[in-house]
Amino acid sequence: MKFILTPILEKMEQLYLMPRNRSRFDAYLFMLQGNKKSRDASVSIEAAQKDMVLPIAGYNPMGNDFTLQQLRKLIRLEAENIATEEITKINSQLGKTKEPKFDVVINMADDIGGSWSNRTTTDFTSKFDIAPLIKRNFCTPYFWTGETFNPDMIRQKIREYLWRTVHWTQKGKPITLKDHVHQEIFVRRKSESYSTDQTNYDFTHIKKIYSEYRLSENYNVIFNFFYGDESSKQLNYPTYGAGVDEGHLFITHLSKLDNASKLN
């Protein structure tokens, strides 16, 4: 397989310079879905992914001035040039194959003030429910309006989403909690994302949750493992005792271990 960047940031900047009215929303839908007859103002990221020609479902089409400011920060930091550099490196590691080309399109989801994207559920979808994207040969690295951008974090995210796409083409959709964990261990190792300090972190409880539910296919269980009780409660999901982002921390820890690939 091979990755190719499809520039989008300056096009989205022009979209956000339009007045925040129906014309802007229609312009967004035309970019997203092309010349489709149906126009649904309540379109969700999941629904939009099933009928798109350009993968920009993560963007809030009615984003405010702050959204525009954050988008311009990505432009000033030359995020797409950084993405191209990382794409070139990963393509060289993948080598020449007859497999299809994947278009890489940066998305910036609105988690501050826009009421467009729930941070945790959208993050989960962007990592673990990307079948519609894979089907159309798309890869969409996600950034958030609430994040502080810098070149290093941009490089890191690009690497993670590209390697996640590689894993999907090789292994398919993760089904059990164990599948989800193994996918993210692969992503952490290939992208070398070991920055979080976990020296004094006690993983006893999250290990217990994993041991008990590793073969579970239940969305609520898997979501709670990664994002914790606080996020589950906000969505009226069942809770299982996981701390905030504890599953992600546990996976970063496992990624450093030589025997993590043998995790039961």
Annotation keywords:
264 residues, mainly alpha, 3-stranded parallel beta sheet, two-stranded parallel ribbon
Task: List the topology elements.
Layout: E1 2-5, H1 9-16, H2 22-33, H3 45-49, H4 65-76, H5 79-94, E2 101-104, E3 107-109, H6 119-128, H7 131-135, E4 138-139, E5 142-144, H8 151-171, H9 177-191, H10 204-213, H11 219-234, H12 246-255
Parallel strand pairs: 1-2, 2-4, 3-5
Helix pairs in contact: 1-4, 5-8, 8-9, 9-12
Protein architecture, described:
By secondary structure, this protein is mainly alpha-helical. It has helices spanning 9-16, 22-33, 45-49, 65-76, 79-94, 119-128, 131-135, 151-171, 177-191, 204-213, 219-234, 246-255; strands at 2-5, 101-104, 107-109, 138-139, 142-144. It contains 12 helices and 5 strands.
Order of helices and strands, N to C? EHHHHHEEHHEEHHHHH
Estimate percent helicity.
40-55%
The description of the largest β-sheet is: 3 strands, parallel
Distance between the termini: 30 Å
Unreliable spans are none
Structure classification: mainly alpha
Radius of gyration: 19 Å
- Estimate the global geometry from the Cα principal axes: globular
How many strand segments?
5
Strand line-up in the sheet with most strands: 1-2-4
Discrete helix count: 12
Q: What amount of the residues lies in strands?
A: 5-15%
